[in-house]
Amino acid sequence: MSELASFHDVLFPLAVSFGATGGPERRNEIVALTSGREKRNTRFAHSRRHYDAGTGLRSLEDLHEVLAFFEARRGSLHGFRFRDPFDMKSCAPGASPTALDQALGTGDGTARRFALAKTYGAGPDAYRRPVEKPVAGTLRIAVAGVERAAADFSFDEATGEVVFASGSAPGNGQAVTAGYEFDVPVRFDTDRLSVSLRAFKAGQIPSIPLIEVQP
């Protein structure tokens, strides 16, 4: 019996993820012109993250937990949450998120939805990354520098937007900011895990590739 792909709202084993390797990938096309100059174009608006969770395995217990997780996700069929060890907060790695960390937009007195995002860099060249999987209980929102109570807003998982409650829309010209911890939606980038118990005990780590997906 076949299954349709979906997103499982579960977290990849945390201890293993903190030992993973990986990061963002860009897809650019570079064409060398006869003049010697280059023509460069980007194929995708957003970067895509790749990880190898195999480097996070420390014990047979870790390996068993990942194998069980792989089976429960049916290999690459279902997506899941992954805690990026290098980039999982709206702020610097050693800091705690505050409601003023990231700019989401400016109110007009009517709009109640603002896309959650994280900005890298500054000025016109800054990159604005959509954040679709904030960690439950960590999302903080401020309007015009004043933090709002949790009852004033919610998060729409389907659209990746902060939604202000009726009657709580930010006023005209008021800055909307946010702080949070977040996960990356990923799937296994393989349908086969090849593991040798003897090799693992000897220190050879199996490759467990993960790739970012749109949930």
TrEMBL record:
Upper classification of the organism: Bacteria, Pseudomonadati, Pseudomonadota, Alphaproteobacteria, Hyphomicrobiales
Keywords in alphabetical order: Hydrolase
Cross-referenced Pfam families: DUF2460
Domain annotation DUF2460: ranges: 8-213
InterPro entries linked: DUF2460
Top-level lineage group: Bacteria
GO MF annotations, alphabetized: hydrolase activity
Protein name (database record): Glycoside hydrolase family 24
